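Curious: explain these tokens?
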Amino acid sequence: MRKGCVYGTVLVDVETRRPVDLLPDREAGTVAAWLAERPGIEVVCRDRAPFFAEGASIGAPTAVQVADRFHLWRNLGEAAERCISRHRSCLRATTAETAPEKVEVQVPVDGGSPWPTGHRFADRTRAKHATVHALLAAGHSRRSIQRQLGMTYRTVQRLADAAAPEDLFQGQWQNRRTKLDDFKPYLNERWAEGCTDAWTLWEEIKARGYRGGYGAVRAYIQPFRTTATAPAARPPSPRTVAGWILTHPDALPENDRLKLKSVLAHCPELEALTRHVRAFGRMITELQGDRLPQWIEAVRADRPAESPHLRQRPGTRPYRGHRRADLPWSSGVVEGHVNRIKMLKRQMYGRAGFTLLRKRVLLAS
């Protein structure tokens, strides 16, 4: 009865709209035993959970089992998302084609300056070099500059003799290999794909064997953020594409409609999936349940790569008593009682058990 651990079952009379019993679990055997003790039940409204379907088939084999359109549509959406997840490469190809041309980030290579703009040492050296040369141009001597800037004479001499500040970028760090060098191609690739979070990139290369710290990764990708052109847009997620497919075409915004059209143009399997999903949507919206067998046959005949996702929900099987028809019954009345039970559970949390909860639900309704 605690969140995420144990689930119970509430049974409601859909005619009187009153709860008739609470069961301590949601096992098929418990449901079947309760129904078997009460012969004469003609209709069982339930969600798509397999244990309820099996329990109703065993306990009330002659009853008609009714599934809500909401649950059917939700299951279809989950199946569509699983299907789209197996075609991520198609989504990436769509983004690569529609993305504007961008200037590649220039990464320092061996032999170039190891301290780009934005590096603390490099900026400080450039500022000192500019100050010293400005004072020299104004007629100050090197000794005078030494006293004014508080530097040693050797430092002033090195700055004055260097034609450019980059000439001073020498020493033990010049062209020295780091732990990050072997992972820079991967970081460049992931940045081009749209991943711009330094922490995420650090976690990814750690899984690939990187033993350095997060700061080195952040410092490496910092120049990428200052480029004039933004990184490539991320491809749409499978959930986003599934939302586009499950939305009525007339209600889909124009921008999303064009994106979906581009996705389907690159993937015949997703185009077939969209056709079947929308056909199912028209069927349940127009209350044409008698067309369900034809829809199932169409999916099987088309045989897209992902057709098993549409044929049957994993872990379920056809049950006796299920009829393909549109009926006035619904399990929507249960949702209000579920909310009330949650409120009662919060009031009783840690102070009472299932027996008291059952009495409060049944006697207060």
